[in-house]
Specification:
Layout (H helix, E strand, L loop, with lengths): L1 H10 L1 H9 L3 E8 L14 H24 L4 E3 L12 H4 L26 H13 L2 E11 L12 E10 L5 E6 L20 E4 L2 E5 L8 H9 L5 E6 L10 H12 L2 E6 L10 E4 L4 E5 L8 E8 L11 H5 L9 E6 L2 E7 L4 E8 L2 E9 L8 E10 L5 E10 L19 E8 L6 E7 L9 E3 L5 E3 L7 E9 L8 H22 L11
Parallel strand pairs: 1-2, 2-3, 7-8, 8-9
Antiparallel strand pairs: 1-12, 3-4, 4-5, 6-7, 9-10, 10-11, 13-14, 14-17, 15-16, 16-19, 17-18, 18-23, 19-22, 20-23, 21-22
Helix pairs in contact: 1-2, 3-5
This protein binds 2-acetamido-2-deoxy-beta-D-glucopyranose (4 copies).
């Protein structure tokens, strides 16, 4: 593509400048990498051993970058923890860390590797970007010494950050982002005191970047889109799939659509930990995605995207608040989805209109199934409340889902196969937020590109009969302002308490193995 543009230059150098300075579309690549994990993650290894392990992973990333560049990609995203793995103690991660400077220093590590000390990983990533003329996005660890005079300085005298870096097609470091919302058990890292809003311009749009668990919170994720007006989000992640609403491809594609941005999500490939699911998502539809629990191989994805995607305006409550309840007198029941107690009604017929409410949220559904099977139950559910397990965040969710078995207490439980296709559906809710992420997930964890849309009055509508049986059709809403339920004072009290608890934990050397679900 670039070659044909440069041919144009021969014809007219004026056209050349215009053409080269801005592209309407670009090719994105995302690599789901089967990370080679170190055997030792609780005790420090030598820096030579650490580098040897990282070089093994960099060898695989190099093959992906080279292949992506050959196929015309302008940018490639690689996963969180993709160079050294996860589940480290604070001391054990240290030999893997490098001092990563602020990109303002204007540095091409490949040309000048020793300018900021010994940084072999940054040098190698920079050279990969430069020699292949492609933007390279990777996740590595940053270390910054601090002094006891800094009251926040950790006892070991340094900050350690989970860090995304971006090198441009000349190998220059153009972005450094320290992960804000660390996941439970990510004790090897510190969160920056204030969220960092990291963006950079290219000839193919403005980019923003954040990491994994950040996607559930307002800062920096929402602010990058709302106030910094980025076109495309770069998203390295180590995401453990959780059904029915938080599998990687499902939630990440929904965020792209809900926020009106391109979204490049690169996950680790680690099926035994339920980590798989990467994709290239445009606001109107997923362009490419990968979910694979069967093989151990990595996967390189490509798609062409608009450099400046169109951001449609949606009023998420308009339709739902304008209509009466679609049915009354249906028997409601309660059941749990990922630790949250939903209010459900069963879908009785092959077609119908239903409403179910919980607290301030009412959800309306009109649907028609292709057949009404006697061995499957579908239900419409509503949840309006504070989720408190593995993170605290207020949700408003309207969901049509397949119950795991015929037993209604399994509605909301994890299930990944179904047999019922839908001829049509229309789902809406009286949301108290403009941040609603529309999800459609089909049997065997497949997306449904081009099969549905969101109308400006806030309905999630099918455009055609579904191409496969349906697991869930969901509007996943976030009320960020209600995350700390009782306000600032309780919030700071919790922070103080958490600080005390972590000190006690550290002193007792209790490193419990949390069953993490996201990264
Ligand atoms: C971990 O240990 C196994 C068995 O000793 C060995 O085969 C493997 O190469 C080691 N992995 C690394 C990354 O050193
Ligand atoms: C990025 O580009 C936009 C317009 O395309 C411009 O307004 C903005 O100043 C640029 N930002 C930087 C950091 O160059
Ligand atoms: C959305 O629609 C509702 C109902 O029609 C209206 O009351 C509300 O003001 C609208 N919200 C916005 C942000 O336009
Ligand atoms: C559902 O409502 C629509 C109009 O709101 C109506 O045309 C349709 O017949 C209803 N379906 C059933 C099964 O009641």
């Amino acid at each position: 593509m670039l070659a044909s543009r440069w041919l144009l230059c021969v014809v007219s150098s004026a056209v050349c400048v215009l053409e080269a300075s801005s592209l309407d579309t670009f090719v994105a690549a995302v690599y789901e990498h089967a990370v080679i994990l170190p055997n030792v993650t609780q005790l420090p290894v030598s820096s030579e051993e650490a580098l040897a392990l990282m070089n093994q992973n960099l060898d695989a990333l190099e093959r992906a970058v080279t292949s992506a560049a050959k196929q015309g990609a302008h940018i490639i995203v690689t996963p969180e923890d993709g160079i050294y793995g996860m589940h480290f103690s604070r001391q054990a991660i240290y030999p893997y860390l490098e001092d990563i400077p602020d990109p303002q220093v204007n540095w091409i590590p490949c040309n000048n590797p020793d300018r900021f000390g010994y940084n072999p990983v940054q040098k190698r990533l920079s050279c990969l970007a430069k020699s292949n003329s492609i933007y390279v996005v990777a996740n590595i660890g940053d270390k910054k010494p601090c002094h006891a005079s800094d009251s926040h300085c950790p006892p070991d005298g340094r900050y350690q950050y989970n860090t995304n870096v971006v090198f441009d097609s000349q190998g220059k470091l153009v972005a450094r982002y320290h992960k804000q919302n660390l996941f439970l058990g990510e004790d090897q890292f510190d969160a920056p005191r204030e969220p960092e809003f990291v963006t950079f311009n290219t000839s193919f749009g403005k980019f923003g970047i954040f990491t994994c668990f950040d996607i559930l919170f307002h800062d920096p994720a929402v602010t990058l889109v709302k106030d910094f007006h980025v076109d495309t989000i770069l998203f390295p992640t180590a995401w453990m799939n959780v059904l029915p609403h938080l599998s990687a491809i499902e939630f990440h594609s929904a965020w792209a659509m809900g926020m009106g941005v391109n979204f490049l999500a690169s996950n680790i490939h680690y099926p035994t930990k339920r980590m798989t699911g990467s994709g290239i998502y445009a606001p109107e539809s997923p362009k490419s995605f990968h979910y694979d629990m069967r093989t151990k191989e990595g996967k390189l994805l490509f798609a062409q995207l608009d450099s400046h995607p169109h951001r449609p305006a949606v009023n998420w409550t308009s339709y739902a608040s304008s209509i009466e309840a679609l049915s009354v007198g249906n028997k409601e029941f309660k059941s749990i989805a990922f630790f949250d107690e939903f209010t459900f009604v069963v879908l009785k017929g092959i077609a119908g209109n239903y409403t179910v409410c919980q607290n301030d949220l009412c959800c309306h559904l009109s649907y028609q199934m292709s057949e009404k099977r006697s061995d499957e139950v579908y239900a419409l559910g509503a949840f309006d409340g504070l989720h408190t397990v593995e993170g605290q965040y207020h949700l408003q969710i309207c969901t049509l889902l397949k119950c795991r078995t015929m037993d209604l207490s399994t509605c909301g439980s994890s299930v990944d196969t179904a047999s019922t296709r839908f001829e049509m559906f229309s789902l809406s809710g009286t949301f108290g937020t403009q941040y609603v992420f529309p999800e459609v997930l089909l049997s065997d964890i497949k997306l449904a590109p081009g099969e549905f849309q969101v109308s400006s009055d806030g309905r999630l509508l099918s455009l055609k009969p579904t191409s496969g049986p349906v697991l869930t059709v969901t509007l996943f809403g976030r009320l960020y302002e209600k995350d700390s339920a009782s306000g600032i004072r309780v919030h700071s009290l919790i922070i103080v308490l958490m600080g005390l608890i972590s000190i006690i934990y550290a002193s007792l050397r209790l490193h419990s193995e949390f069953q993490v679900s996201l990264g």
